[in-house]
Amino acid sequence: MSAWAALVERARLQSRETVLINGATGTAGRLALQLAKYLGAGKIIGTGRNESELKELASLRADLIIPFSIEPGNPAGSKRYEHALMAEFARGIDVVIDYLWGESAGPSSWRLPRQ
Question: Which long-range CB contacts under 8 A does 42-46 form with residues at least 24 apart?
Fold first, then answer.
């Protein structure tokens, strides 16, 4: 229901829009990915930490998979994630579903451009 409410009721997802699912490797994230595809999303971007589960997202038809590792001792992992997200936001993301929130959802070192 969380994915349905987010995509249909709140975002009113339109065909061919781009959806970012932060935390796509969890149960709710996987369901959101499948539902977004069913509803006609043009591009689905999934993020997550677990490498083996990230590989499975391709079988669920994720168009882009962005791994992240946000740990105090791993600034390179944080920067890769940050740059990948910034690039995708520059291309245009219409809907964000975030099952993680916190530092992974918005590192303090980056900001989205104002529209």
Answer: 42/15, 42/16, 42/17, 42/18, 43/18, 43/19, 44/18, 44/19, 45/18, 45/19, 45/20, 45/21, 45/88, 45/93, 46/21
Architecture of domain 2-100: 3-Layer(aba) Sandwich (3.40)
pLDDT in tens, 62-110: 999 999 876 666 677 678 888 898 999 999 999 999 988 655 444 443 4
C-alpha distances (whole Å) from 39 to each of 3, 12, 33, 59, 85 are 11, 10, 10, 17, 23
Distance of alpha carbon 96 from the chain centroid: 7
Phi, psi (deg, nearest 5) at residue 19: -120, 130
